[in-house]
Amino acid sequence: MQTPADPQDRHEYPSHWEADVVLRDGGTARIRPIAVDDADRLVSFYEQVSDESKYYRFFAPYPRLSAKDVHRFTHHDFVDRVGLAATIGGEFIATVRYDRIGADGSPASAPADEAEVAFLVQDAHQGRGVASALLEHIAAVARERGIRRFAAEVLPANSKMIKVFTDAGYTQKRSFEDGVVRLEFDLEPTDRSLAVQRAREQRAEARSVRRLLAPSSVAVIGVGRAPGGVGRSVLGNLRDAGYTGRLHAVNQAFPDDLKEVDGVLAHRSVRDIDGPVDLAVVAVPAEHVPQVVTECGEHGVQGLVVLAAGYAESGPDGRERQRALVRQARTYGMRIVGPNAFGIINTADDVRLNASLAPEMPRPGRIGLFAQSGAIGIALLSRLQRRGGGVTGTTGVSTFVSSGNRADVSGNDVLQYWYDDPETDVVLMYLESIGNPRKFTRLARRTGTAKPLVVVQGAGQAPPGHAIRATRLPHATVSALLRQAGVIRVDTITELVDAGLLLARQPLPAGPRVAILGNSESLGLLTYDRCLAEGLRPARPLDLTTRASAEDFRRALSQALTDESCDAVVVTAIPTIGEGAVGDAELAEALRSAAEEVPGKPVLVVHVELGGLAEALSAAGRTAPHAGATAPGTGGGARPSRPAERLPTGVTAEATGVTAEAETPSVALPPSPKPPAPHPCSRLIPAYPAAERAVRALAEAVKYGQWRREAAEPGKVPEYDDIDEKGAAELIGALLERGEGLAIGVEETCRLLGRYGIAVHRALPAPTPEAAVEAARTLGYPVALKATAPHLRHRADLGGVRLDLADEEQLRRAYDELSELFGAPEELRPVVQRMAPRGVDTVVRAVIDPAAGAVLSFGLAGAASQLLGDMAHRLVPVTDRDATSLVRSIRTAPLLFGWRGSDPVDTPALEELLLRVSRLVDDHPEVVAVTLEPVVVARHGVSVLGATVRLAPPPARDDLGPRTLPAY
User: Fold this and answer.
1) DSSP track, 832-889
2) Residues in contact with 528: Cβ distance below 8 Å, sequence separation at least 6, in sequence order
3) Cβ–Cβ under 8 Å, residues 213 and 344
4) Distance CA 689, CA 694 (A)
5) Largest CA-CA distance found in the chain, in angstroms, rounded
6) In which region does residue 19 sit, left (phi positive, over 0), alpha (psi from -120 to 50) or beta (all else)?
7) Residue 410: pLDDT over 80
8) pLDDT digits (tens, 9 = 90+) for 412-464
């Protein structure tokens, strides 16, 4: 794009206004400023607009643009006159412009803050949400240039354009004069305008993913002529899965007379295919991909799955090749999964899409899977395939996306799709990084209110070549913030599948009370101990003994489920061998029957398989008496006195498969009876090979259920009458004039915090003993003498603090002691501070992270937070409910509530302090860091003894701007 060269242009071409957007139908377009060299594109665009649309734009017949019009509409100063165009394939499909006006409606310059705005959308692209996207972007541009209000004149018959303005959610006024509707609206984002924008974003991004996952036609490009190879394998996978749409094989090396490959129509190019192609799976080497993308774009293909490697993962040249790929695909309005992708799967009966390298179609089910890593994607599919069976049916996959390098389609996009996908009940995601944490937590919070979202986050490294803002937050902090957003955060792939199987087919527990029953006392006690360790409230296990029948299990489970003091039931089962032993199918039917009687509570099964014992017994058998012989003193018909352990396949139906065979070793046995046919309304009862795995999954379900109940009644951000927001803004503005990245002084810190009702105990410098005495007289005894040198600050354990100094004599003696211990006063930097009421020392911090946004943290001061990392975190703004949970989230919270007979402290006052700090950083994004340490929480009230504040120009808020795709 060339820079405008007209002498009257006052600004360089604003390349930062360029953006790719997803439209209402899921396609993409590029929005960019209109420049001087766009004259021919503008004329061509206008020629394709209908006479009716031209009439609505100019209020009169206007068949063509004059040379003067073209000059006016392509020459802008990018301040008072701005034009934007939406383009596909490099050609204009819509335009918008504003002209700054004064109070009388004539052209004006700043400080005038109003502008007239007008749109023109090509008829073929009307109804795709182009005008709505352009309005978001032109409004953001106008705000950047100091314009606060738009005015638009529209003919009454132009109902579509009136709807664009009225649906945007801005505060507006409407009038009618001289046959024209005049709309005026403020450009400051409102809660409603943000809600409208995000709802449009969700619909558009969901549809863009739906077009990939439910195509009516697929072309596999790069299908080899001989069996084998990636392209031929994917074609076979699609065919074998029973794909319901039209399937095409493409390879430019096919001979002209080749009509079919493996029963699929063969073509030398996508251009040769009759009819539309919705999805292209690209399996050619990276150097041939640009030609394929061009052909697909010109044929109208809607999306690409690029399996080819050789992109960002291969080094700098590959990174540039990847960026060029994304730019090229977006030029044609196409979205990309990949490159270096494993593929996508949709098991719906009316789709049956396996456009992946997975040789088998997963069983259909209600779980959505996303993995950035192909290897992890394979592991997830494999484990769910092995472990998806159960008592009353199977749990499988609804859709699967493995994004590879994640150059375009990301986890956020797929999350938008799953949010309202009726075929998906649970979402499992493996994320190596979170490219847009603000957006992800927003989407996760919304998704979590509708269905469980379980996440494993990897090492935090971005996919190769993917530009993301690096977070400075520790991994534990990120995990805490994800949990606040309703994410079920687990650490391993095994835990991901364990939780997913439970949540997919069992109701959420109403609380942490757990009943345990089974035929093994030891296994019941192990389960009991794990429940306690996970913070659950188990009842004492009910031992049914090893002679328990299937009816005993059914009766016990039924009683437990009907007990109002029980929220969930864990059944422990070890199978028995011998006369009268309960069969697998019989036990499965008994558990299913009892669970159906009371369907509102989750049921889990824990079983143990002791393959090692089986092997030992087998080895011992080689030295035992021959078959038919009897041991001394026994009869030939004796039954074993102890149960033999084996896999209860009737209950689990292969629900124990993990990666290594050693985790669930088994002995070769005759085939077990198949589980009973699933009842139409029955739920799968998941089974686990170890108590800790079952209980961990249950504990996550309990915490998620509690979050769901709390999210249904969100807290409020309270208002405080004594907060002086305007005064704080003026003080911050004056301080920032001194420079960027400013750590403000003690007096300024106290003044700023005081504007928000946060009082800081004065600490007066004491460079000499006489200055210390004078400070104590000013403050009043008793006082504390503190060394504030960096190596001694907040380190009372080093002896740099003297407390409860009641008079001048004690103060002078303490001053001399500190000087003898630590050096001259200029090294100690001593201060004198009035004593605060005794209580619990805590620390309150708030930081602005470039990726996650504002974060409020709380913990106890000293070793608890510094050594053990016992800090709790919440995203700002914090509600009253957030503040309450924040105080109680740290492991050392009992110290605040009367631990071991100590006096409980004033936690309501502490919560109010947290809310005031949250308000400060939320109201003023220039406040990039706040630390209050120590904050002494006494029986009555809190005392802030130390405070630091750091100011900087506010960071960009990409979550408040117009909708855009990540830039390349």
Assistant:
1) EEEPPPPEEEEEEEEEEETTTEEEEEEEETTHHHHTS--EEEEESSPPHHHHHHHHHH
2) 516, 538, 540, 541
3) yes
4) 8
5) 115
6) beta
7) yes
8) 999 999 999 999 999 999 998 777 788 899 999 999 999 999 999 876 555 55
Residue 738, CA distances (Å) to 49, 729, 749, 929 in order? 54, 15, 15, 17
pLDDT tens profile 865-924: 777 888 999 999 999 999 999 999 999 999 999 988 889 999 999 999 999 999 999 999
**Residue holding tokens 């509707």?**
181
Q: Is the pTM of this model over 0.70?
A: yes
Percent of the chain residues past pLDDT 70, beyond the cut: 86
Instruction: In whole angstroms, give the CA distance from residue 600 to residue 584.
Output: 25
**What backbone torsions phi and psi does residue 783 show, to the nearest 5 degrees?**
-130, 170
Q: At a CB cut-off of 8 Å and minimum separation 6, what does 110 contact? A: 79, 80, 100, 145, 146
Beta-bridged to residue 98, according to DSSP, are: 82, 117
According to DSSP, the residues that pair with 925 across neighbouring strands are none
Q: Cα–Cα distance between 149 and 669 in angstroms, integer?
A: 77
Q: Checking phi first, is residue 571 left (phi over 0); if not, alpha (psi -120 to 50) or beta?
A: beta
Cβ atoms within 10 A of the Cβ of 135, count?
A: 24
Residue owning tokens 């002078």: 812
The answer to whether 541 and 571 have CB atoms below 8 angstroms apart is no
Beta strand ranges found along 608-698 (DSSP E): 687-688
Q: Are 94 and 24 spatial neighbours (Cβ–Cβ below 8 Å)?
A: no
**Which residue type does 874 have?**
R
Residues 271-294: what's their mean pLDDT? 96
Crossing angle of helices 725-736 and 746-754, rounded to 10° = 150
The DSSP symbol for 405 reads T
Residue in 164, 115, 136, 130 with CA at minimum distance from that of residue 49: 130
Residues with Cβ within 8 Å of 173's Cβ and at least 6 positions away in sequence, in order, are: 183, 184, 185
Q: Which residue carries 């006006």 as its tokens?
A: 101
The pairing of beta strand 513-518 with beta strand 542-543 = parallel
Residue of 708, 706, 194 whose CA lies nearest to 447: 708
Over its C-alpha atoms, the chain yields an Rg (Å, rounded) of 34
Instruction: List phi, psi (to 5°) of 47.
Output: -65, -25
Cis geometry, peptide bond prior to residue 63 (ω within 30 degrees of 0): no
Q: Look at residues 591, 555, 569, 424 and name the one whose alpha carbon lies nearest to residue 507.
A: 569
Kindly state the helix (H) or strand (E) to which residue 508 belongs, with its residue range. Answer: none
- DSSP class of residue 372? S
Coil, strand or helix at 321: helix
How many other β-carbons are positioned within 10 Å of the β-carbon of residue 900? 6
Tokens of 812: 């002078």
CA-CA-CA-CA torsion for 329, 333, 339, 345, nearest 10 degrees?
-150
3-state secondary structure string across 109-121:
CCCCCEEEEEEEE
Contacts with 464 (C-beta within 8 Å, 6 or more apart), sequence order = 311, 312, 313, 318, 319, 322, 405
Q: Give the lowest-confidence range in 271-275, 374-378, 570-574.
A: 374-378
Could you give the CA distance from residue 83 to residue 117 in angstroms, rounded to a whole number? 10
Contacts with 523 (C-beta within 8 Å, 6 or more apart), sequence order: 572, 574, 606, 608, 691
Residue 843 tokens, joined: 């620390």
CA pair distance 575, 583, nearest whole angstrom: 8
Structure token pair of residue 702: 């309990």
Query: Which of 916, 951, 949 lies closest to 746 in space, CA to CA?
Result: 949
**Residue 213 and residue 402 in contact, taking contact as beta carbons nearer than 8 Å:** no
Please return the burial class of 119, using the count of CB atoms within 10 Å of its CB with bins 0-12, 13-18 and 19+.
Answer: buried
- Rounded CA-CA distance 64/47 in Å is 7
| CA dist., res. 520 & res. 408, Å (int) | 52
pLDDT of residue 822: 82
Beta bridge partners of 30: 20, 87
Q: Is 707 exposed, middle or buried (0-12, 13-18, 19+ CB in 10 A)?
A: buried
